[in-house]
Each structure stands twice: as structure tokens, then as C-alpha cells.
Amino acid sequence: MPPTTAPAEQTGVLTPEILMACLTWATFFVVLIILQKFAWKPILAGLKQREDYIRKCYEDADKVKAELAEVEASKAKIIEEAKEKASGIIEQSRKTGNELARQIEQRAKQNAEEIVTSAHQEIEGERERVRNALKKESVQTAVSLAEKILKENLDSEKNRNLINQAMKDV
Q1: How many Cβ atoms sit within 10 Å of the Cβ of residue 166?
Q2: Quick check: pTM over 0.70?
Q3: Max CA-CA distance within the chain?
Q4: Which long-range contacts (CB under 8 A, 24 or more apart) does 113-121 make?
Q5: Are 166 and 148 in contact, with CB atoms under 8 Å apart?
Q6: Which of 69, 94, 123, 137 is at a distance of 20 to 30 A from 157, taking alpha carbons?
Q7: Distance between CA atoms of residues 160 and 153, nearest Å
Q8: How far is CA 31 from the centre of its chain?
Q9: First to last CA, the chain
Q10: 69-117 pLDDT, tens digit each
Q11: Tens digits of per-residue pLDDT, 110-163?
């Protein structure tokens, strides 16, 4: 039989060594302290700064949105005032146009009445002139006829023929 030996300590990958475990933990804490001092503080400060910047941008965006709403309200008010002024101007122009049309119509009626009155007066004057001319011509014809009748007062048959002939001439 082979000699029996006492169980020796077997070292393997799965068996932990206390020294190695302590060194690993010590290295971990040293790296943790170094990272906290040199990396985490600047990273957290950068994140805080970025958070503040984003918050400020949101606030600025809200302010711009509010200002835009005010500008829109102001624009709507100005447009409404402009529409009211435009409709007032249009209404005033319409009234003025109607008044001018009425005045022009009245003047045209007056002018037409004056022209008609003047035409009636001219017609009446022309009628009087023609009557006077006709009377004058009638008188001259009557005188001429009487003169012829008196010159040739021979007999009544000749007088009748002479009157008929004078009537034909007229």
C-alpha cells in the first residue's frame, strides 16, 4: 500500500486566497476613490450643468410661446381694427356716392326742366311768329285779292273765278 499522506491543501482557481481577496478589495476601493475624486465629480457637475441648461431652455421656450401668443393677440386686434376702419371708410364712401348721385340726379332733372321750359318758350315764340307771319300774309293776300276784285269788278262770275284762282294760288 502506498503510503498515505496527509491531505494537502489544494490550490485551485475556485479556492479563494485571502491575500488575493484583500488585495482585490483594496484595489477596488482605491480605484473607487480615484474615480470619485477625478471622474464622478466632473461628470456629475457636467450633468448638473446640462440639466440647468435644458431647464433654462424650457423656460425660455415657455416665455417665447407666451410672447408669441401676445403677438398673435395683438395682430388679431390690429387686423380687427383695420377691418372696422375699412368697413367704416367703405360705408362713408357709399353714403358720399349716394349723396353725389342724388345731387347729380337733381341737377339733371333741373337742367331737363329748364331745357323743356326753354323749348316750350321757343316753340311758343315760334308759333307766335308763324301766326303773325300767317296773319300778315293773309292780310296781304286779302288786300291783293280785294285789289284784283276791285280792279276787275266786272261781274260776279268773274269775281268768283278770280276768288277761286286766288285760293288755288294760296
Answers
A1: 16
A2: no
A3: 217
A4: none
A5: yes
A6: 137
A7: 11
A8: 76
A9: 195
A10: 999 999 999 999 999 999 999 999 999 999 999 999 999 999 999 999 9
A11: 999 999 999 999 999 988 899 888 888 887 887 787 777 666 665 677 777 877
Rounded distance between C-alpha atoms, residue 35 and residue 27, angstroms: 12
Q: What is the DSSP string of 42-62?
A: HHHHHHHHHHHHHHHHHHHHH
Enter the C-alpha cell of residue 45. 457637475
Instruction: Could you list the beta-strand ranges (E) of the chain.
Output: none
How many residues in total does the chain contain?
Answer: 170
Q: Taking the CA atoms of 122, 127, 129 and 130 in sequence, report the sign of the dihedral they define.
A: positive
Query: What does each C-alpha distance from 49 to 38, 40, 41, 56 come to in angstroms?
Result: 17, 14, 12, 10
